[in-house]
């Protein structure tokens, strides 16, 4: 994740005054809160330290959370909200990706420029793979047994064969690389080229770059989530605080909606057809997908300042987000929300 998240971007609701380019896409607000806090619990790391990506292991019902500035990663049982393991030797862990068939997860360690291979049975790092510079977001293409890791500062994408735990190819770009995603319908890997405002397409069968497309008025396209069923990508645009809807058939941006300040991680819940964007200024921007071409902003749900990452449990529709501060005081904890309100 880029350093642009660190700047406080002013009042969260200022972005709501931005005009929308597409009349078919509304920005109507929800009639009530969209989320309800149901739990919070402390984490082992020191308070006031930056967190980063987190993901769900649906098989074991684990939440895996990277505590970037504490140089460790937590494995949490979502049935009990208990930390079952603290995995060390993940210095500056940013991205985290779970590989179900191998019972492993992979961390993107920005502090020593490595990808950490973590065995969930042993709950420890069993191997490290050297990358170029600042590995960040990652995505797993299951049919190809390949993990794609964005070397953000290295302007590259590292391709890992998870059956061997080896980097088999590195793709280079003329831009810092943002979040990648694997599309199981199109069987393609997408990656944000955030310096150029470009959406790049990789064929995982050959690891060739097969397309590069502009993302309209979106600038700094860092975060990404997918709706493969409806052939849509959702981009969090750091540069001008927009959530951009990208048509994967037409390879073009079709809608832009305002975000709260400091947008970063974006997630899609297909069951509720909701899009969530965690924003550093202290909000989760919540949207509803009415259909593939129509989207509504429900609200900017207030959270603590510094919250910039979120995970969605697709079984329960609960949201998990780590907090590093409470009203300016350092903490280290996880907060759990139920989805409520307009849908």
CATH superfamily label of the domain at 52-214: YVTN repeat-like/Quinoprotein amine dehydrogenase
Mean pLDDT, as a whole number? 92
What's the N-to-C terminus distance? 30 Å
Total DSSP helices? 0
CATH architecture of the domain at 52-214: 7 Propeller
Class by alpha and beta content: mainly beta
Strand content: over 45%
Task: Kindly identify the CATH topology of the domain at 52-214.
Answer: Methylamine Dehydrogenase, Chain H
Instruction: Kindly provide the name of the CATH class of the domain at 52-214.
Output: Mainly Beta
Number of strands: 28
The percentage helix is under 10%
Largest sheet: 4 strands, antiparallel
Evaluate the radius of gyration: 18 Å
Q: Which sequence of strands runs across the widest sheet?
A: 1-28-27-26
Overall, the morphology is: globular
Tell me the series of helices and strands, N- to C-terminal. Answer: EEEEEEEEEEEEEEEEEEEEEEEEEEEE
Stretches with pLDDT under 50, minimum 5 residues = 2-27
């Amino acid at each position: 994740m880029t350093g642009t998240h660190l700047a406080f971007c002013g009042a969260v609701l200022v972005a709501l005054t931005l005009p929308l380019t597409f009349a078919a896409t509304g920005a109507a607000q929800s009639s009530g809160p969209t989320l309800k806090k149901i739990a919070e619990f402390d984490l082992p790391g020191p308070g006031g330290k930056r967190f980063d990506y987190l993901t769900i292991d649906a098989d074991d019902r684990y939440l895996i959370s990277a505590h970037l500035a504490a140089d460790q990663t937590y494995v949490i049982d979502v049935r009990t909200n208990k930390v079952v393991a603290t995995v060390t030797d993940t210095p500056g862990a940013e991205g985290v990706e779970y590989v179900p068939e191998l019972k492993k997860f992979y961390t993107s360690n920005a502090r020593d420029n490595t990808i950490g291979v973590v065995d969930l049975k042993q709950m420890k790092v069993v191997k490290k793979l050297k990358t170029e510079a600042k590995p960040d977001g990652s995505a797993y293409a299951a049919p190809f047994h390949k993990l794609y890791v964005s070397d953000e500062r290295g302007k590259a994408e590292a391709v890992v064969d998870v059956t061997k735990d080896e980097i088999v190819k590195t793709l280079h770009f003329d831009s810092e690389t943002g979040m990648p995603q694997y599309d199981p319908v199109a069987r393609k890997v997408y990656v944000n080229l955030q310096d150029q405002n470009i959406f790049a397409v990789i064929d995982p069968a050959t690891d060739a770059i097969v397309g590069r497309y502009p993302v309209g008025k979106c600038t700094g396209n860092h975060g990404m989530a997918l709706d493969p069923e409806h052939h849509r990508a959702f981009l969090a645009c750091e540069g001008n605080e927009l959530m951009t809807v990208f048509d994967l058939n037409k390879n073009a941006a079709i809608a832009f909606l305002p975000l709260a300040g400091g947008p970063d991680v974006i997630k899609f819940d297909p069951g509720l057809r909701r899009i969530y964007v965690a924003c550093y200024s202290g909000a989760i921007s919540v949207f509803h997908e009415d259909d593939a071409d129509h989207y509504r902003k429900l609200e900017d749900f207030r959270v603590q300042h510094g919250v910039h990452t979120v995970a969605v449990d697709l079984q329960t529709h609960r949201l998990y987000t780590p907090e590093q501060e409470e009203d300016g005081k350092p903490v280290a904890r996880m907060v759990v929300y139920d989805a409520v309100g307009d849908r």
